[in-house]
Each structure stands twice: as C-alpha cells, then as structure tokens.
Task: inverse folding
C-alpha cells in the first residue's frame, strides 16, 4: 500500500523500489528473473501527489471512488509487454489488447480520467483543506476529551495522509462500534470496510503498530473531504460527546451499554 487505509500512514515505496532495483541487478547477473513491484495507491490518490517515476514501481492500481470519481479502477503497467509482463486472468474477446475480455465501460473510463485531471490540477489545494480540517478535528477531540483521547495514527517520523484521523476514547465501555451505535448523526467506521467481518476484534493494523489492545478496540476512523467544514467537525465532536456521556451514564446506573 502506498498509504494505509486505517491510519493514513505513508509507506516508504520509493525506498523499497530502490532496494529491489539493486537486488534485480544481482539477480540478472545470476540469470534470475527480476522481482516486480506493485503498489496499491487507491487510498493516496486525491490526497497527495502520486508519481510512478518517483515511486519506481512496475505496477500501480487506483480506484475512482476514492477521489470523487466513478467506481472503476485502473492499472498502471511500466513498459507494458516490454519492460513488465502482464498476463490475462480472463479469456474470451480480444478487447484491451487481449488483456481483459469484455466491452469497455466508456462512460466510467471517461469519468475516471476527468476525476484524475481535477486531482492533477488541484491536489495541493485539496490536500491543504483536508489537512486543515483534519487537524482541527483532532484539536477539538483533544479539547473535549483531554487525556482520554489517543490519536492512533500519529507516529514520530511518519508521514500520513491529510484526510485521515484514527482515534480512541479511553474507557472500558467505549469500544468504537458501541460509541458509533450511540451517535445520532455521525456515520463512520472502526477500521477498514474490507475487514468488517472481524466483528468486535481490534484492528490487526493498530495492534501491529504497537497500539495497546484496550485502546485499539475503542478505535474510530474518521475521514474528512474536500467540502468538510469546521461546523461539521463541531457537530461530530458534540455527537461523540453525547454518545460517550450516554454510555457512561448507562454504565454508572447499571443499565446495559448497548
């Protein structure tokens, strides 16, 4: 992953590619095939500059709905068929140079291209707005919950996406999914949507980052967007505040928390 979808942390893809390139020189001398590098850039595009030359990768995937485009993906291949091999997974028609059978989805392809064009033109402005709102969100959370807040995506020396905030509110009865169930307006996630089958278990990503179990199980992930305002942030924080107060009131009175 170029950027982790739960914490927003940017991975050192250029460094990995550089090391693989050095390894491939030794492999070539030994008559071995090269190691190819693929990165999933779905979470990063639209929030930061993504350049395959800077990354040094052979394959890169993106998906439109992550940057306000249609729900269609694209695969970049460096030197298709010459520098980098690509083999079809499905067979039938000869569309897309025999790599994938089926009629091309022209409207969505055009929509993806337009969304990418807007990102290329406005990426810095989009990122600056999202960073300002995300930072304001974290400031408001810390002001409202003080030392009870743990920001799960802040790691010394690590760069992260400007839109992602992963946090926990400490408390025995404040598991992320329980807090969200008590919110009146906020709809959010406790982690990755593609891992929602894990139920009440803490995120393996957070645990592997060293977040304590009792903190990780309370995690909530919020994302801000191009149009998110400070007023909306204030509403979200107030919603979280009433949810926490309600849960703690139930716990102190002996009523079930969920």
Result:
């Amino acid at each position: 992953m170029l950027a982790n979808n739960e914490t927003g942390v940017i991975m050192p893809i250029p460094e990995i590619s550089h090391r693989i390139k050095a390894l491939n020189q030794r492999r070539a001398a030994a008559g071995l095939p090269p190691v190819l590098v693929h990165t999933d850039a779905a979470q990063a595009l639209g929030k930061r500059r993504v350049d395959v030359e800077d990354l040094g990768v052979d394959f890169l995937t993106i998906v439109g709905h992550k940057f306000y485009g249609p729900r269609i993906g694209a695969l970049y291949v460096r030197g298709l068929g010459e520098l980098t091999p690509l083999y079809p997974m499905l067979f039938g028609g000869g569309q897309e140079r025999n790599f994938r059978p089926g009629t091309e989805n022209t409207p969505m392809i055009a929509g993806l291209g337009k969304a990418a064009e807007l990102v290329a033109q406005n990426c810095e402005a989009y990122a600056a707005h999202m960073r300002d709102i995300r930072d304001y969100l974290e400031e408001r959370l810390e002001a409202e919950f003080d030392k009870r807040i743990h920001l799960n995506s802040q790691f010394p020396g690590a760069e992260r996406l400007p839109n992602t905030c992963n946090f926990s509110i400490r408390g025995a009865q404040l598991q992320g999914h329980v807090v969200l169930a008590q919110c009146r307006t906020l709809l959010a996630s406790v982690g990755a949507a593609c891992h929602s089958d894990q139920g009440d278990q803490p995120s393996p990503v957070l645990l592997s980052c060293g977040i304590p179990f009792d903190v990780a199980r309370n995690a909530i992930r919020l994302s801000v967007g191009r149009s998110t305002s400070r007023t909306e942030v204030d509403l979200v924080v107030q919603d979280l505040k009433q949810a926490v107060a309600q849960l703690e009131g139930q716990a102190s009175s002996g009523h079930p928390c969920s």
Observations:
- The chain is about 40% helix and 10% strand.
